[in-house]
Amino acid sequence: MEFRIYLRAEGRVSDCSQALLEFASRIDGHIPGMLRRRKHDGSPLTLGLLDYWMSDEVRVTSGRPEDRLLTMLESYEPALTAAVSGLAVDFSAQIVVEYCDGEEPFGFFLDSPLLKLLVKIGATLDVDAMQVG
Fold first, then answer.
1. What span, in angstroms and rounded, lies between the C-alpha atoms of 26 and 107?
2. From the CB of residue 127, how many other CB atoms can be counted at a distance below 10 Å?
3. Got the DSSP string for 1-67?
4. Closest CA to 94 of 57, 49, 67
């Protein structure tokens, strides 16, 4: 089992390109990442919400992934707080649990310092589990 951890920003409005470009310019040099474009599937819900910013991924294969997320957010907190200030962007921390057939994914514990930091930054937490292989 492996965990992928990364940070993500998306615009709140249908024409979010300007807000994301501003976010990316503010974060440049502070957090490794880049603007990306989601593949368009033609559904009305994805129209206009194709662009997003994503940090580089950190992979965790042992220990507590939540500790790695806390360390990551603590080191980036000043830059993140400044970057999202006044912009129409939603910011989230992402944890993806990847497990193989026969493995049973296990949970993790979100303790107070991590929760307080997410609130301070104004971030949500998105957790996904994905079977691989």
1. 34
2. 14
3. -EEEEEEEEEESSSS-HHHHHHHHHHHTTTS-EEEEEPPP-S-GGGTT--EEEEEPPEEE-SS-HHH
4. 57
Sign of the torsion formed by the C-alpha atoms of 125, 49, 9 and 129: positive
Burial class, 19, CB count within 10 angstroms (exposed 0-12 / middle 13-18 / buried 19+): buried
Per-residue pLDDT of the chain (133 residues; tens, 9 = 90+): 899 999 999 887 655 678 888 888 888 889 999 988 776 655 665 555 568 889 999 999 887 899 999 999 999 999 998 888 888 888 899 999 999 998 887 778 889 999 999 999 999 999 999 999 7
Output the DSSP codes for 72-87. HHHHHHHHHHHHHTT-
Residue 7 tokens read as 């940070």
Bridge-based pairing of strands 123-132 and 58-60 is: unpaired
Return the residue matching tokens 């501003």: 22
